[in-house]
Design a protein that fits this description.
Layout (H helix, E strand, L loop, with lengths): L1 H13 L5 E8 L2 E12 L5 E2 L6 E4 L2 H15 L9 H4 L13 H5 L11 H11 L7 H12 L15 H15 L3 H13 L4 E3 L2 E2 L2 E2 L16 E2 L4 E2 L7 H5 L9 E3 L1 H16 L7 H8 L22
Antiparallel strand pairs: 1-2, 2-3, 4-10, 5-10, 6-7, 8-9
Length: 310
């Protein structure tokens, strides 16, 4: 079986399906397979992938950071699924999305559209007010921008995958805890679980800066030669909206190794099976059970009982 996996991964590299990859497989609680294939970088020169290669995890930020942080805050009694957005964002009082709840955002049923180019407005502000990029003011700009968005569907009636909803969740976590999303995840989740090399990489003065954990920029796989930023992206988040928000956002911004991702998945699995008390088993079950009652939903969070339409 190991040879079949190895051959399949090597063939994918040779056929240019992807330049490189790291694959880990656990079976019945044990590491059954691991391998690094192809190249982590192709420009300006070729660099081989290793098991320690750090990748931009993109939308895996949603489950690995934001959703996990929300679960912890609920478990700690600091936040509730039925809390409305305007509880944490008074500026959304009376706005179309203002009455949506934490549950609606997790369930992608707030009615918000999937994506909007927030970074363009933030970049324009940066030109007029240097230092605006990644500042607290940029976060407020994002909230106000999203607050002006008309809903695509009535709240609570349909699931539509939305980066905007998770941007709000990330900012909500920061308002509820008075620390950055990166700091909360690091201190409340990753450090207690012993997970290393799973982190945000904050944008500093328009460039990346690794957030501790003995990770160098050289160990991070480049994303692309980005025409908007005019450089090869390495050690800075690929997603433009996350970059404009400072590299720390609820929808994107996480970096990590395959091993770190596996450890986070193991923590959820252990919570689900009751093998650990780090995560509340009942909450984990609610978060990962499929809701068949929500039209167009493939989300694995059965939170419908707390998601009454507004």
């Amino acid at each position: 079986m190991a040879d079949l996996i190895t051959n399949a991964m090597q063939s994918a590299v040779e056929e240019r399906i992807f330049p490189g990859a790291v694959l880990l497989v656990r079976f019945r609680g044990h590491l059954a397979y691991q391998g690094a294939f192809g190249c982590a970088a192709l420009i300006p020169q070729s660099e081989p992938t290793t098991l320690e290669t750090v990748y931009d995890l993109a939308s895996l930020t949603k489950p690995l950071a934001t959703t996990t942080a929300i679960l912890c805050l609920i478990q700690d009694g600091r936040l509730r699924l039925e809390d409305s957005l305007h509880t944490y964002f008074p500026e959304l009082q009376g706005k179309a999305v203002g009455s949506a709840t934490v549950c609606h955002l997790l369930h992608h049923s707030s009615g918000l559209p999937g994506w909007r180019p927030l970074f363009e407005g933030i970049a324009a502000q940066e030109q007029q007010h240097p230092g605006f990029l990644g500042s607290e003011a940029a976060g407020k700009f994002a909230v106000e921008y999203i607050g002006r968005e008309p809903l695509v569907n009535p709240c609570g009636t349909m699931s539509l995958y939305s980066d905007l909803g998770f941007i709000l969740l990330g900012l909500m976590i920061e308002r509820a805890t008075s620390v950055s999303l990166a700091q909360f995840c690091r201190e409340r989740i990753y450090q207690p679980l012993g997970i290393q090399r799973l982190m945000f990489v904050p944008t500093i003065n328009g460039r990346g800066g690794v957030d501790g954990q003995h990770v160098t920029v050289a160990s991070i796989a480049p994303a692309e030669d980005d025409p908007w930023r005019g450089r090869v992206l390495r050690g800075e988040v690929h997603d433009e909206n996350a970059y404009a928000l400072g590299g720390i956002a609820g929808h994107a911004g996480m970096f990590g190794t395959a091993a770190a991702v596996m450890m986070m998945a193991d923590a959820w699995l252990n919570g689900y099976l009751g093998r650990s008390h780090f995560f509340n088993r009942e909450l984990v079950h609610r978060f990962v059970s499929r809701d068949s009652n929500m039209p167009e939903s493939s989300r694995l969070m059965r939170l419908r009982n707390n998601c009454a339409a507004h």
